[in-house]
Amino acid sequence: MSDGKFDPSIVAFCCNWCSYAGADLAGVSRMQYPTNARIIRVMCSGRVEPYFVLRALELGADGVLVAGCHIGDCHYISGNVEAEKRMAATKEVLDKLGIGQKRMKLEWISASEGQKFATTMKEFTEQIRSLGPNPLPKAAKARKGNPANIKQKMDRIIEDTGAFDCVECGKCTTVCPVAKYNPNFAPRTVVLKASEGIVENVASNRDVWTCVTCEMCNSMCPYKVDYSGFIRGMRNEAVEFDNVPVCSQGGLMQSIMRIQAHGSLKQNRLDWVTKDLKIADKGEVFFFTGCVPYYDSIFKERNLGLSDIPRAAVKIMNRAGITPVVSNDEVCCGHDLNWTGDEASLQKLMKKNVDLIKASGAKKVVFSCPECMRTFNLDYQDLMGDFEFEMVHISELVDDLVKEGKLKLKKGSKKVTFQDSCRLGRHLGIYDPPREALKAAGAQVLEMDNTRDKALCCGVSAWATCDEISRKLQVDRLREAKKTGADCLVTGCYKCLIHLSCTLENKTQVPKEQIDMPIKDLSVVIADALE
Amino acid sequence: MEKSVMVIGGGIAGIQASLDLADKGMIVHLVEKTPSIGGRMAQLDKTFPTNDCSICILAPKMADCFSHPNTNVITYAEVVGVEGKAGGFKVKVLKKARYVDEAKCTGCGECLEKCPAKVPSEFEMGLAKRKAIYMPMMQAVPRVMTIDKEHCLTLTKGKCGNCKKACKREAIDYEMKDQILEFEVGSIIVATGYDVWDPSSSTEYGYGKYPNVFTAMEYERMINAAGPTHGHIERRSDKERPVKMAFIQCVGSRNPQVGHPYCCAVCCMHCTKEAMLAREHHDDMASTIFYKDLRACAKGFWEYVERAKRDYGVRYINSDATVQENPDTHNPIVVYDVGGRQQSEEFDMVVLATTLVPRKETADLAKILGLKLDEFGFLESADRILGPGTTNVPGIYIAGYAAGPADIPESVAQGSSAAAKAVEMLAQAGA
């Protein structure tokens, strides 16, 4: 870039067997091609996760090339088939984020195609050159903790969360779903170490990432110690010492969220809005959809019908005479970043969202995602003071509309059971509205053994705790659901739906017939019952 | 200036206060809400730390209190209004119609056999049925029957009349009406006692959901020879005798989350006693007590705990606990924490030492009397350090559990203390 002309930086992931050999051939054959690409050799194009692409862009690459063997030639039989699916999803995500799929390319280059490699490099470099520099701001330097301050910071967290009140009675351990399967974990031990002044473990303590933050401990603690708040605070410190979570999808979700926080791109997140839905730019009611458009792209293969959920919510509102504001400029609420030690990004997202809602003139914000609602209700208001707009979960809205006679639902004879998500239940205390809404939709609500404030967690939180214990928790939960004899498990949370379905789609140690049942979102069930 | 005192509440604290006052020559009006005096102590099987039979040491006091020439025991009655000030209170008492003439009834019990209506017995914590005409317990004082108008077929539906036919003394009077009695007294002592907290709202203990989870008061009735099972410990699910017993302490107490931050002051000793009694009943009984902290602080209490460990094989585990159930056997599974590790163990029966809370009616009564309540809902003393028993209203004194957590000896001492204070106040005022 010495002459002031834009010279793109490109990251090229090349498979060991075909494309890397293709690059070699181009080299030994003395073929000329631009030097903008840094090649990273991978064993298979199937190894390239969507996260690699996003992370490369986040770290300043202007374009990303993924190259592998031709379909049918994969040395691992079908790695490239997987790569094709993954990169298709990645392209969708890039489009939705506003980065644009043209910044990445997937190409099949065999070991004998030196010429093709050189041509691809030339063409892609020109393509990126014409697109201009990566629109994302330069990635901020990772925060580095100062060991001298850590004691002081931990003391602050102890005070904020009432951790000194712990009398070591152990009740938290008895109800902790993780402690049931992990003998080395107990909420109180995490707190105890810190309150005894042992803080060096912030850099090494993995327990801080073992917690699923379901708040079972908080709701049971006689002395109301905020264990999950403590964990969240400690995570924010831990990441500064490179004690970081092992995230699902390699960290893709967090990357998407960070890009929304730090970039100022025009998203394309409204592809789920169909013509029959009435939405507005300004109005009394704002419908906050959450990250579902992204999840829909990422989990497209799994046919979870995630886009049906916001559609159902808008359909319900339309039927009750409400035309909600749905905005393309909505950004992630920051929940998952906040719970993985990145409060700074939460604050950026918070400002964007709150400004957006204020500009829309909305007096009420409707959420179909309990995590977003928790973040607005507890975290945003904690940082910004109380909002003037009201915040309700879609189940509360439905319950109100039915009671006011504004929404008519068909009677049915379905038996369902309801999964209280941690955020909707223990974090926000909303238990009855979803049940009332389901009853209004003609469903008979059967309760699981552990229900309401004792409900078992779906096993994963903030895409950071997925491990073998998660699977056990999911199996436990599905077993309970199956035992009720219900036809369908209804959740009010996207994440519960995604995580519990994952168990059904994969191998488990229990026979499938003990856990297999349809899982549906509450909004979809209600929308199906619209008259 | 009236040389008389009203005592509200006929439990051990109220009985002690009444006896002391009567012995000092005061006229005592003892108002008791239920059909009999005796209170909670009458429900207990044994007392700690001496394992005395509770009713055996209480019953003589009940009888003395009733027959003392200076006492007027008004049972099945409530205070509904107070006027005046120290030295001259005018108290309105609602004497509820018991539909039985107290002067004629001998408590023979012939009516009981004929009464067709069965109701869960309050005295037996619902573990047994009583009739609509009843005496709460065998040692009831006064020894007269009471008809519960909610459940009596004659009073609700106008048909039956069996008890009237059975009563040879013609003591039954279905026409009896509630009446308002008025008393002029110089001083008032409030000793309204406690209620047993219902743990079913704390679902982590499974009470009400798992059949073999009991409250300590239920267990207390069960091991009592005069109780609903004649002293046999029985599981609800199969009537079998348990062998492995778990006692969980601090259920609902020391728990700001459910609104009771205070220590109930009795459950450490209470559980120890109950575990010992289990072993006294059967040699093979193995009891485990789950505790937050062992607060066995009074004279002989720690030795009592040591004796439980040494001679009765009681196992103590320092952990709060929650309960699950083995659905096949209905055996409760206690989940607890040892050094930050979750453990679980199956038992045959779980007994919850539930906290004790101020009676619901205490707040209403405090309003009538103008008394302050403390942050826990107990009656507040004028000075917690130097003036326990005195209140914000001169001439009104408090005693027993209504004033805050206390065990039996403490309640007795407080009853005596309140009596002495009342006499002192009246003497100074020239009564």
Structure write-up:
The complex is a heterodimer of chains A (531) and B (431). Chain A is globular and about 75 Å long. Chain A starts with 9 loop residues before the first strand and ends with a helix. In chain A, helix 1 links the parallel strand 1 and strand 2. Helix content of chain A is 44%, strand content 9%. In chain A, helix 3 packs antiparallel against helix 13 (292-298) and helix 12 (252-262) crosses helix 16 (343-360). Chain A has helices at 19-28, 50-58, 79-97, 114-131, 150-160, 171-175, 177-181, 187-195, 207-210, 216-220, 227-238, 252-262, 292-298, 308-319, 335-338, 343-360, 370-384, 394-403, 423-427, 432-440, 468-483, 494-505, 522-528, and strands at 10-15, 37-42, 63-68, 104-108, 285-288, 364-367, 390-393, 415-419, 444-446, 488-491, 519-521. Chain A has 531 residues and is an alpha/beta fold. Chain A is built from 23 helices and 11 strands. A 4-stranded parallel sheet of chain A has the order 2-1-3-4, sandwiched between helices. Chain A has a 4-stranded parallel sheet with strand order 9-8-10-11, sandwiched between helices. A 3-stranded parallel sheet of chain A has the order 5-6-7. Chain B has 431 residues and is α/β, with parallel strands linked by helices. Chain B is built from 10 helices and 24 strands. Chain B has helices at 12-23, 54-67, 110-114, 153-157, 162-166, 216-222, 267-281, 301-312, 360-369, 408-428, and strands at residues 4-8, 27-31, 46-47, 52-53, 71-74, 77-85, 88-95, 118-120, 129-131, 133-134, 146-147, 179-185, 187-190, 194-196, 213-215, 244-251, 286-291, 315-318, 321-326, 331-338, 341-346, 349-354, 356-358, 396-398. In chain B, the strands form 8 sheets. Chain B has a 5-stranded parallel sheet with strand order 5-2-1-13-24. Chain B has a 5-stranded parallel sheet with strand order 15-22-16-17-18. In chain B, strand 6 (77-85) and strand 7 form a beta hairpin. Chain B is globular, with a radius of gyration of 23 Å. Chain B starts with a strand and ends with a helix.
